[in-house]
């Protein structure tokens, strides 16, 4: 039986975009397992120069976008862990642009970034697999909004799907 989608009110409305990118009937854990191959197929063969492509001035490079996916997944996983363990402390938000600016992504190799991405993804899958069904609807607070473990289970692959779409639509056409 597919994992039920999170109910409105169990996540900030901004996350609707990400949750909607997990197709109906798709298991979010299966999507998390499948995405690394898709990402590697899309960018694994890029040169270091190509990985520094920005689709517009002021936008992230492909390397920065990849490390943003990694950073954000770590934060989503941390939030899921805290909420799943019953921690009721409100969790802070984060400034994705400040993180990208401080990341040093452009000074790293693409292969190094992909290896880190894959390690984080393995940890994310292991974490979500470890949760018993009873904790999926456990509520918490992040960025002053309600959030459940179930919502994060859908947001994590949906966030990456959002960036894979941007990669296909805005970055890769510039590379020929």
TrEMBL record:
It holds the Pfam family DinB_2. InterPro entries: DinB-like, DinB/YfiT-like. Residues 32-165 form the DinB-like domain. SUPFAM superfamilies: DinB/YfiT-like putative metalloenzymes. This is DinB family protein. It comes from Hymenobacter algoricola.
